[in-house]
Amino acid sequence: MTKRKQWNVIGLALLLGVFSTLGPFTIDMYLPAFPEIAAMFNTNASLVQFSLTACLLGLGVGQLVVGPISDAHGRRKPLLISMVAYIICSLACAYSPNIGMLILFRFTQGFAASAGIVISRAIARDLYSGHELTKFFSLLLLVGNLGPLAAPIAGSGVLTFTSWPGVFISLAILGVFLYIMTQWRLKETNPPEKRVAPNFKLQLRGYGTMLRDRKFVGYMLAQGIMTAGVFAYVAGTPFIYQNIYGVSPTVFSILFASNGISLIIGSQIVGRMSHRIPEQTLLLSGLWLALISSVVVVVVTIAQGPLFALVLPLFFFVCSIGITSTAAFPLAMESQSKMAGSAAALLGVVPFVLGALVAPIVGIAGEDTAVPLGLTLLGTSIVAVVTYFLLVAKKDQNSAQTH
Q1: Is residue 247 predicted with pLDDT exceeding 50?
Q2: How far is 111 from 351, CA to CA, in rounded Å?
Q3: Rg (CA), the chain
Q4: How many domains, the chain?
Q5: Among 160-164, 167-171, 172-176, 195-199, which stretch is predicted with the lowest mean pLDDT?
Q6: 3-state SS class at 336
Q7: What is the per-residue burial (b if ≥16 Cβ within 10 Å, else e) of 353-376?
Q8: Nearest CA to 49 among 324, 299, 373, 341?
């Protein structure tokens, strides 16, 4: 690869990575404001966490809609329209009069933000395949995973000089920036001759075909269930760190950001090792790491261990998500070149739907215990490992016996 081509690849990964950070910023930037929002609307932790659930549902449903649209109408136009909608919804969140309206606007904000996630991944599949897709996707995640690292710090910074509505105004400004970037730098990668017919029944049939592919479903569920565990972590740690361990919003943001680093480490391990170690082996290693670290989290939460004893296994748990997500995506997408947007949508929607179901569980026992978080992480790890062996490993074994 020439230096110019290498720089073009890096530049594209940076651009798509910025778009993929829209999801993490939408989810994470207001986390330090959870206690303030609860006090402002005179409500409880579970309802505030439900605003996160609504956002996750919006991100999930939006991907199912935007993915097929981008297969039929190209990547740029749907992204531009979504950015305009995102700006409007972010401002609506900032001026919500009550918790109910905030929950509603968080859903629409998540729906609009979904375009950045699903279309950036579809563009990656438009341009690359095989090990090259794995390498490019790990590079994209290197940028995208800075979102979970930077978002809570940015949110905490905003909260030092203004109240929680300022967080959503900042997100609206981010939407303006991304709209400009789309107009200025993003080229169409899905030309008219490669697009699928804009037929709703055909799109549903395409989803049906993918959902009948046992290995695709196995990879999709393994990474989706694991990522749902991270959403439980995202929903639970603002209250656990600040209410149980008494840390300040700034310290919480630093602790939360450290796990953004672990996501980056996990994704880069896969990107650098994929030429030597099969992606399936890397995926399974990530699943085992998640299981072991979640067992430690359960022990620490039951024993009410010190803060560092909880932070360390959580670091490794989140690292495992970087490994599993980066390895599972190219494995699942390899056979889906004609419907890259729809496939990316399914791979994207499952984590958000499962995360939306799991996130409220961590607050079900109140704000003074971290045990539900530990049990939730352990449960998602066990289910992900079992799913992999039932749908992927067993399929490979059956294929080997047939041949």
Answers
A1: yes
A2: 14
A3: 20
A4: 1
A5: 195-199
A6: coil
A7: bbbbebbbbbbeeebebbebbbbb
A8: 373
Containing 210, the helix (H) or strand (E) segment is helix 200-211
140/218 Cα distance (integer angstroms): 23
CB-CB contact of 339 with 197 (8 Å): no
Coil vs helix vs strand at 348: helix
Angle at CA of residue 169, ends 168 and 173, nearest 5°:
115
**Residue 242: predicted pLDDT:** 84
* Cα 278-280-285 angle, rounded to 5 deg: 100
Using CB atoms within 10 Å of the CB of residue 19, give its burial: 0 to 12 exposed, 13 to 18 middle, 19+ buried.
buried
Yes or no: say if 139 and 12 are a contact pair by the CB < 8 Å rule.
Answer: no
Q: Global pTM? A: 0.72
Residues spanned by the domain of 129: 3-402
Between the alpha carbon of residue 376 and those of residues 243, 317, 364, 370, the distances in Å are 19, 12, 11, 10
**Contact present, 345 and 63 (Cβ < 8 Å):** yes
Report yes or no: 252 and 350 within 8 Å, Cβ to Cβ: no
CA distance 274 to 290: 20
| CATH number of the domain within which 70 lies | 1.20.1250.20
Mean pLDDT for the stretch of residues 200-222: 84
Average pLDDT over the chain reads 85
What's 291's DSSP letter?
A: H
Q: 78: pLDDT confidence band, cut at 50, 70 and 90? A: very high
Q: Averaged over 354-367, what is the pLDDT? A: 72
Which backbone phi and psi does 278 adopt, to 5 degrees? -55, 145
